[in-house]
Amino acid sequence: MSQKLNLYLVPSDPEFIPGAIAIQQFKDRLHRDKLADVLGDVIGTGERLVEGGVTHISLDRPSAPVVWGNKTGGFSVSCPQCSEPMVREFNKAFSAWQGGAQERDVECAGCNRRAPFDTLRFRPKASVGRIAIALRDVGSPSLTGLCVDIATDLLGVKFSVVMSRG
Ligand SMILES: [Zn+2]
Prior knowledge:
By secondary structure, the chain is α+β, with helices and mostly antiparallel strands. The protein has two domains: 5-65 and 127-165, no CATH class; 76-123, no CATH class. The chain has three helices and ten strands; from the N terminus they run βαβββαβββββαβ. Zinc ion (ZN) is lined by residues 79, 81-82, 84, 108, 110-111, 113.
């Protein structure tokens, strides 16, 4: 397997974007603590951030919301209430959100309840949002306390860790 393992730290609130000051403080801290250079290349092995190391850390801000998760092989989505598969409904609602709609939930055809994006069950695990801290080429999925601390300062206490290969 030559594929690399990456981690995305995604805020639980899909609309959340940190302020400019918080983003600057995040970058300043990486430099001040000699964790990464200006391009995001990690200095040293990166074991201060991720158990087993990491080679690159950056803040990814795509122009439209994305599903952070495995890029290969797709994913399944199911209702958190009744477990009904809802990938078609999700794709429709997600496209609408990307297009500027305010709704960030999906109506389940099984139980007719509306499920917010951040409550959906993705397999493999995925999370939707506008921004993520990307940790590329990690040695494991385990963040150090320092990394959790840095992510919490930027994203708030509620964020999820999503794995991606490739
Ligand atoms: Zn349901």
